[in-house]
Amino acid sequence: MFDYTVGTDKSVEEAIQGLEERLKEEKFGVLWNFNIKEKLQEKGLDFQKEFKVLEVCNPQEAFRVLNENEMAGYFLPCKIVVYEDSGQTRIGMPKPSALISLLNDEGLKQFAKDIEVRLISCIDKSI
Length: 127
Description:
The protein has 127 residues and is of the alpha+beta class. It has one domain: TATA-Binding Protein, CATH 3.30.310.70. Helices cover 45% and strands 28% of the residues. The protein is built from 5 helices and 5 strands; from the N terminus they run βαβαβαββαα. The protein has helices spanning 12-25, 36-42, 59-68, 96-100, 106-126; strands spanning 3-8, 29-35, 51-57, 78-85, 88-94. A 5-stranded antiparallel β-sheet has the order 1-5-4-3-2. The longest helix is centred in the last third of the chain and has 21 residues, at 106-126. It starts with a strand and ends with a helix. The model has no long low-confidence stretch (mean pLDDT 96).
């Protein structure tokens, strides 16, 4: 699977708040909270669902991965989406291991898996 996605009964904002707290525990910061609904409406499009994209980064880990293979920078920062779907809030992300596999770099695969496990833990603890 390309992604990891779970549902929660929390609102989008509650899910984001819990997620941000868990991310801090793993030393990930939210660089940007992009509100797609707001941006589309600003452009005159009638998009009604809450849909937010969080760009998250752990500076130490970014430093490590970029020193290993600069092409990995194409996948930075990590993205986590929080959105409404059929009355439920969903939290998901593309799996770092799926993205890194595109580089065919064995040295980065375990690194990506470690980041993936940590981000999945943050998501699971926030639901």
